[in-house]
User: Fold these one by one.
Assistant:
Number 1:
Amino acid sequence: MEREIILSEVQYKAVRSSGAGGQNVNKVSSKVVLSFSIEESQGLNDEEKEIIKQKLNSKLTTEFVLILNCDEDRSQLKNKEIVTKRFIDILEKALIKPKPRKKTKVPKSVIEKRLKEKKSNSEIKNNRKKLDF
């Protein structure tokens, strides 16, 4: 993953924020929408593209375009920084390969301890029974 190339391929669009906010919300386009096409990216190799398509399947459109929004701040510049940071984090997390799980064997001492506990429990319960004379 080549970060500089990817960041140059990202497209930003400023949109009016929705919801409450008084008179300012009707005039200022502070919400930022980031869109990134995975298919057309030069910063990702084919293997990385496939991994991203699988892991981010629910966040992609049918044309494999990732769209992120940010309207947390009143400043368009800050929203752009936030959404860019979020975009990089999402891509990096998607490309992390999980470590393979190593099977571990249960130690003999643990098995013996469990069996001993079971045996003592059964003896306690057997002693509660009424004796037949």
Note: The domain at 3-94 is CATH 3.30.160.20 (Double Stranded RNA Binding Domain).
Number 2:
Amino acid sequence: MSSFWSIWISVITLGTILGCFLILRWCLKNKTGVKEGDDMHHEFDGIVEINNPLPRWWTIMFYATIVWGLIYLALYPGLGNFAGLLGWQSSIQDARSVEEVQQKRQAAMEEGGLLQYAREMEQAEERFGPIFEAYAKRDVKDLATDPEALKVGQRLFIQNCSQCHGSDARGMRGFPNLTDDDWLYGGSPSAIKTTLLQGRQGQMPAWKDAFGEQGVKEVVAYTLSLSGRKVDPKLAEAGESRFAACAACHGQDGKGKYAFGAPNLTDNTWLYGGSEKAVTETLMYGRNGVMPAWKDILGEDKVHVLTAYVYSLSQDTSEQAQQ
């Protein structure tokens, strides 16, 4: 925060408290010209106003709130850039990366700083760490049949994953549906865990310059034909020869490859839309999807539980549990 805004906020804050104090003092003085306890000659609906002073208990409480406000502003941050005498912080708000957060958090703890979020995280780790550690020792498929573990995994999912994949995990345009059996990098427990731990970065190159607009039109026709769509047969035939450039990732049969995160083009599951316009846009300009890595954010034990939950979304775990 700049010095100007720091001073501006401090002046307004302290000025408001001072103003409340002066108004209170003014109200304690009898400036009406009427003796205390006498009739003010104001009457409404049978109610007569009497010149009575403010109740003593009310006045004391008002003074107490003013004193408390000043003490609070002295101990905790609230006056612009003043950090407070206790050095308390809710969190490290100026950090720009996970690594920077961890470094500043460690430095604050070593210096005895009152970092609220860090202390709450330590308390949570002490309480819940052993639970996650015990879950991490179990096989993902086994964990996916444990109702209590799935409740934990669901909470982790809602807190960290639902912003992109939706609270029901059915995804949206550009973000995969996790409840079906269509996976870009594989739906096995190990593949899902790798995705969560390390993240993914999908790169579909733009083909506008290589194919030209007519070439893109031909490849779009052939691509749509792979999933049984009705297209111009001449365009599809011409696009088939050009598709050789796409086969390196999607395979000669168009069924995709987990190693590259290349989607299956023979079904009707489309990450960015399956209309002719959407597929044309994908080929013309390419796509770049990023799945963040959660290893440093959640830790491996929590990722293990989250893996079990994500895996369970596309599985019939009820039958597994009965076996």
Note: DSSP finds 15 helices and six strands in the chain.
Number 3:
Amino acid sequence: MLELQQLSKTYATGDTALRDVSFVVPRGQVMGLIGPSGAGKSTLIRCINRLVDPSGGRILLGDTDLAQVGRSELRRQRRRIGMIFQEYALVERLTVMENVLSGRLGYVPFWRSFTRRFPGQDIENAYRLLDRVGLLEQADKRADALSGGQRQRVGIARALAQEPALLLVDEPTASLDPKTSRQIMRLIIEICDERELPAIVNIHDVPLAQQFMHRLIGLRAGEVVFDGTPAALDEAVLGDIYGAEDWTAMRREHEEDQAAEADATRRVAEVAR
């Protein structure tokens, strides 16, 4: 379980990115962070894994306050936090298997990580994870030979190789087409259900978030302005989070994307006949 208590972040410039943010993410829940650019979504995730030091508040992962741990303990605690990135963050020249095994770097001695000689148990687990994300046959292929959706699946397997207590997911579908985006979100939800993993997903695609997230939190100017189920996220709330004009433009863009995808699917079907 993750619990934030009055988490705040003010930068040296005086700009406040987060204001007294408090919520709990129980085991197995996938929570989506939505809000306009500059709302504090990325800062929130970076505070949780301490890439950014918070100005105040508590970050409780189990019984540990991540906001208070020192450098050496922070390294150990970060092993418990799996990260899935928008731009995949793979080592392109390494194989799929080697990228997945990099999730174990925090657990093995330096000489093993330097020579990439991992314990047999880690290798067996990596194969199981690749099978789970549908990439077992791609294990020996270089990462730069994969499609975007395949790369994101490698990123998911790498995060799971850490055996994390929490998943932080930053814009996992921003670089993917709509169909692949749904596949990736479905995979993340299924894996969190299977492993009872709590997850926070920073996501810009509101309809996709409404379709897949267990719960949504809306941020605006660093403050929580909505915390509830996707079903409770109506037009009035979305207007409050994004501003009425911006939300109308976002909705129109999504509808145009859906229409374009449906047209492409129809054309493919016509060619196949």
Note: The chain has two domains: 1-80+167-186+197-273, 95-163.
Number 4:
Amino acid sequence: MPQQPAPPVLPVPDEVGRLYDRYTDLGSATLGENLHFGYWDTPDSPAPLEEATDRLTDLMTDRLHIGPGSRVLDLGCGTGRPAVRIAGRTGADVTGISISRKQVDRATALAAEHDLASRVRFERADAMELPFAGDSFDAVIALESIIHMPDRAHVLREAVRVLRPGGRLVLTDFFERAPIPESGRPAVERYLREFMMTMVQAEDYPPLLRQAGLWFEELTDISEPTLRRTFVELSARISGSAQQLGSDYGGELVEQFNPADMTDVSEFGHLLVVAVRPPNR
């Protein structure tokens, strides 16, 4: 009988915060200022990882339909690079939240470095209990952050609560493109476990959005232009600086962060989701 996958362990917000307090420096040393996947327009694109991660931010920002004076909430802001970029490109005001104190401190410093402290602000907060009044934002963006949250339905309801009527939500999530084969299951389960993440099925999203009170607009599989190339780039960076990373973060930490195991698990997918809060509701 085929082995059944291990049941997912739901992330606990405070534990996720401590994880990122510990891993933020490691992520910055490998991914750079953006702690998310890159997006390459073509398989042979010469764009470096840093440029590709900005491209994913831009791809999502363009779907927010924002401009000067818009208020944007960045759920899971990382170290602030996406929020700073969104403000710089669009003129919007951005509020970023993270459950990690270290990320909030780093992001606040980055906004100040770019002379954007008056329009880009960060605070420690839990996306499951947003500390904002209803109808506060014109758009919500969540770059690979909902994967760390224990209840997607609850997070979506919170996003709807703080969105103004007609406001837009754009997020990315991990999903199972096809059943994970036994050969790839250990790598996927380890990746999800070590980084306190869960994944979904693509077909889960339309009812999740509808039940939260959102109009579904777009569901796109962006696995091909994002995942494998990012895992390859990360693997090369870690291999090239393994001794230094091991010294800085502990050998066991570097061993846990092993993207090479994921490069050929094509069933592991990356999903782009766009939804709208209905106008006048």
Note: Residues 1-5 have pLDDT under 50 and may be disordered.
